[in-house]
Amino acid sequence: METTTTPRTRALIERVRTFCDAHVLPRNREMLAHEMTDPADDPPFVAQLREKARAEGLWNFAMTELDPGRPGEPMSNTDYAVLAEYLGRVLWSSKVFNCQWPDVPNMVALQQWATPQQKQAWLDPLLDGDCHSAFAMTEPAVASSDARNIGTRIRRDGDQYVLDGEKWYITGAGHPRCRFYMLLGQTDPDAAPGSRHSVVMVPRDTPGLTIGAPSTFFGYREPSGPAHSLRFEGVRVPIENRIGAEGDGLRVAQARLAPARLHHCMRGIGISELLIELMLSRGRERHTFGRPIADYDAVQHAVALSRVDVEQMRLLTHSVAARVDRLGAKGAFRELAILKVGVAQAMYRVAERAVQVFGAMAGYQGAPVANAYAWARAFRIGDGPDEVHLRTIFRMESAPTETLDESPYVLPPSSSGLSASARA
Ligand SMILES: Cc1cc2nc3c(=O)[nH]c(=O)nc-3n(C[C@H](O)[C@H](O)[C@H](O)COP(=O)(O)OP(=O)(O)OC[C@H]3O[C@@H](n4cnc5c(N)ncnc54)[C@H](O)[C@@H]3O)c2cc1C
Fold this sequence. Notes:
Shape: globular
Bound molecules: flavin-adenine dinucleotide
Distance between the termini: 50 Å
């Protein structure tokens, strides 16, 4: 597909590729081995590579805007789509350039909603790469795909908020360098449904906060670290930690969900491209009944259908990225829902085919097939399950006003001699 990146972006992407060829890919096998044995923390070379990337000006590409003087190279979504696809091939590489999730979506929400003092406290350390963060919304007690169900209580007590509740599946919450959580909870259960919630920032070491055991998704751990549960029992934070006004919580959360979905889709293309390459290699190397398995239609179709999926994923992603650049996330609400379902399902189809082509080796964590499969499956649930996005899409379809009998596109069965009773 032809892309419309600017010369500046093309030059940056070239520098990122050169950096990855020299420093990231040679470490990838070491990282794969590390992830199988010590999933909680990053190996020391990640911090060294982050320092090196930052020194070379290869830093914070995933933000579309930064305040003057803040470190990084902000990019439009259209431009970042090309870079993020490349970074998707090796998921931990996003971390080297400070483009990792869940930090980036948190940074985007803080950039949009935080006061200058709050930016200093929460955004700057993330932009500088001094620490990581997590986003704490989902709760075991309620169906969290409807964010209005979120029940963790945020009660005002003088100049503090007191938090009580339990979260789970919070990506990166237990990473040793995760310093704070962006938490969604209820400040006013009696307010209108869209205004009951608020977002507050909670430092990790606050008394009353307990981090539970790590949980993977079918054994898959994201590069930001495994997910954890978090228990809040009488946790106190100053009211200055609230982002936006009381009742703005769902809107602040939306601000981070748009880049979260968009960037995962961009990386999903890179993962899928890699899976096609791996299927081709595996297809050439394995022989059954005297022929490489790549000689059989089934494997050829697995590759070809995956190519069809990838090209569609890319076209859709670039088109939605351009719309978000033009109209903002609000103006692309419907398109982001279409993108999320379309890419998550397409990526899942590609990963499913790769599993079949790889046979038993698909389940081996040292090859990226198992991780891609688990990740693709998780992506159909996280950041809004398929069904919730399909509901949004359906609700934004406008039904024609005429009945089928009135429609100029339909010959009513009555005109063809069918009686009304036969039609019923
Ligand atoms: C790998 C991974 C990482 C995650 N990281 C984070 C994180 O960092 N922070 C965080 O807060 N959360 C995180 N989550 C949680 C994720 O956001 C939730 O799982 C998701 O929002 C769905 O909520 P739920 O699990 O409560 O499912 P539920 O809300 O209980 O929904 C279960 C199922 O019900 C069906 N359903 C729901 N609504 C409808 C509908 N309207 N129509 C038809 N069917 C419907 C869907 O099939 C859905 O999958 C993560 C999840 C995974 C898997």
